[in-house]
């Protein structure tokens, strides 16, 4: 499918905004702890400055998702970027404050507001993706996630270089201004979006109703498990690798090994979910890959193998591949499952699903490092990895059971296809319906009430076939 000019422009400005936003959010990692300690702050205090970001995203994302259709995705997107950029610049002037309590207090305040902006930007961007690219949601989401992942990798490196060049303020001001420029670009290019469903002013769904759908509840669990695994690695990988006596440069490369395969393979998972494979199969595959990764890097207590550099490299590459498959596939399937279960195919539903995805990911990102640190102190790295292994084994088992249960209730072509009923009547094969054998009548599924209809029944609605 060829993209229109508007779609290409949207994709480009999203890629720039995602990259710049990720850089601004992550740039302080190499030098903020040192600055905080110079003011008298403890590791617990400045560690929670990092953690409060994800906790705030978890709290506010469902709220944004629930009211996106009223606020407007373009306004929320631009306001989110502007807020993130402004707070990034403000964070660069904290070194002027000498009182420890004031320094930490303002750090918390700015980081919370920054998280609110970033959450609004992400929730709106995911919704606009679903609106602008209805036939390529997974592939588009994956490409933008690649840009965001690259920004998270480049951020600390670029921030550290600018810190050495011009001190504490320079990286925040220069990169914050870069994000402000990206915000101006998106304001000029992005079109306005309105809710297209009937009863525009009436809320036709809620986050609670969404999460009650079993398939979406499972997707939320898989998203959280994936982000827990990421946070676990971020918090405990360095002390686990310390006995290998790696140089700081080599250690930095080990962290890149975790994110690089995610960025490389994310577009592949998106294409597969959009065009070829049921997204649930991709989630199951990703879960088993993550299980293999944590079994090797521990190594698991029941494996009589030592911790070696080659094994750790293989495990980190597998981890980036596995959690990437889970994240991309859950985003794709959640949108489809919401529509299949009676939610309208409009910007309000996109906002709800996007808010759910952002919120559950943030919750896992908050739980991951917190649980990892406690488990590392309590039982050591090898036994601590069992926690993540079990989480992902449950992801695989639950999705397999869900596929088995749903397969008994509906015909399956492997992927969801949006069709119009008139096409089903005139040309079922072109519509993608199962024609079957033994004179069986093709069935299609209604968006409005999730029931099945014969392809020959009278209706003017649109349907999804699975």
Structural write-up:
With 466 residues, this protein is mostly helical. The protein has 3 domains: 1-191, MFS general substrate transporter like domains (Growth Hormone, Chain: A); 206-409, Up-down Bundle (Growth Hormone, Chain: A); 417-465, no CATH class. Helices cover 74% and strands 3% of the residues. It has helices at 5-26, 32-38, 43-71, 73-91, 100-132, 137-166, 169-189, 207-211, 214-241, 248-275, 279-297, 309-340, 347-379, 381-407, 421-426, 428-431, and strands at residues 417-420, 443-446, 452-454, 462-465. The chain has a 4-stranded antiparallel beta sheet. Helix 10 (248-275) packs parallel to helix 12 (309-340), helix 11 (279-297) packs antiparallel against helix 12 (309-340) and helix 13 (347-379) packs antiparallel against helix 14 (381-407). The two termini are 20 Å apart. Residues 196-203, 410-425 and 428-466 have low confidence and may be disordered.
Task: Quickly describe the structure.
The protein has 16 helices and 4 strands. The chain is mainly α.
List keywords for this structure.
Growth Hormone, Chain: A; disordered C terminus; 4-stranded antiparallel β-sheet; mainly alpha; 466 residues; 4 strands; 3 domains; 16 helices
Class computed from helices, strands and strand pairing = mainly alpha
Q: What is the H level of CATH, i.e. the homologous superfamily of the largest domain?
A: MFS general substrate transporter like domains
Number of domains: 3
Strand order of the largest sheet: 1-4-2-3
- Give the biggest sheet: 4 strands, antiparallel
Instruction: Report the radius of gyration as a whole number of Å.
Output: 23 Å
Shape: globular
How is the quaternary structure best described? single chain
